[in-house]
Amino acid sequence: MNVVAIIFARGGSKGLPGKNIRPLLGKPLISWSIEHALSVKRIARVLVSTDSDEIAAVALQNGAEVPFMRPAELACDNSPEWLAWRHALNYLRETTGELPDLMVSVPTTAPLRFPQDIENCLDEYEKGAADIVITVTDTHHSPYFNMVKANADGTVGLVNPTQRVLVRRQDAPIVYDMATVCYVVKPEFVMTHESIFEGRVRSVRIPSERAIDIDTLLDFQIAEYLMQIRIESNGNH
């Protein structure tokens, strides 16, 4: 099976400028994702899709391929990443004559993942009956119990009120947060659909300490702290 990993890392980031190459324990953030993807033997190629020459240079230094630059219109704040996925897959089809069997997206924003988390997503896909595999993590809030929305009259109410009053979160339906640890997707699905949940979605649960998604400086500081603890305790990164 031809499995290609692609790391999507645009240059602009309003939440944390320069995020994708900001040093986390002395290594550019993107290098952690490149390292994880290169560690998975089932992955044949590791590519980076970016609009930034600086990110491209760092990616090449860390062992990834950067065979194309992403167009500026696919790297704006409001650009759907789904279209960047399509752009990368179109490049592969044009240069190799076919789409890969699988695309693995390995976001830069989840440096605390283990390579085994990627392996587990590939295993889940290979069970069949899925167009895409996403990662999820336990949530501390539930739309049925303690998540509220604003009402037109200025009051707030539950996002999803239930027929009966729930007095414990444990009594609410089980929900998860989507994580950005890994996506395994059938390329044909990306080319013919517009979003993840148009298809058959399976999931892999990731412990919360490996599922942090860096969007702000606080997220970055928490990730660096957790990574430091991990390295000091067992040297595993």
Description:
There is one protein chain. The chain is α/β, with parallel strands linked by helices and 237 residues long. It has two domains: 3-138 and 175-234, Spore Coat Polysaccharide Biosynthesis Protein SpsA, Chain A; 140-173, no CATH class. It is built from six helices and ten strands; from the N terminus they run βββαβααβαββββαβα. The chain has helices at 29-38, 53-61, 81-96, 115-126, 187-192, 217-234; strands spanning 3-8, 23-24, 27-28, 43-49, 102-105, 132-138, 148-150, 156-158, 176-185, 201-205. The strands form three sheets. It has a six-stranded mixed beta sheet with strand order 4-1-5-9-6-10. Strands 2-3 form a two-stranded antiparallel ribbon. Strand 7 and strand 8 (156-158) form a beta hairpin. It is globular, with a radius of gyration of 19 Å. The mean pLDDT is 92.
Q: What count of helical segments does DSSP give? A: 6
By CATH, the topology of the largest domain is Spore Coat Polysaccharide Biosynthesis Protein SpsA, Chain A
- Please indicate the count of domains: 2
Strand percent estimate: 15-25%
Average pLDDT figure: 92
Total beta-strand segments: 10
What is the CATH-assigned architecture of the largest domain?
A: Alpha-Beta Complex
- Low-confidence stretches at least 5 residues in length (pLDDT < 50)? none
Shape: globular
Class by SSE composition: alpha/beta
Strands of the biggest beta sheet: in what spatial order?
Answer: 4-1-5-9-6-10
CA gyration radius, whole angstroms: 19 Å
Q: What is the end-to-end distance?
A: 27 Å
- The CATH superfamily of the largest domain appears as Spore Coat Polysaccharide Biosynthesis Protein SpsA, Chain A
In percent, how helical is the residue content? 25-40%
* Order of helix and strand elements from N to C terminus: EEEHEHHEHEEEEHEH
- Let me know the largest β-sheet: 6 strands, mixed
CATH class of the largest domain: Alpha Beta
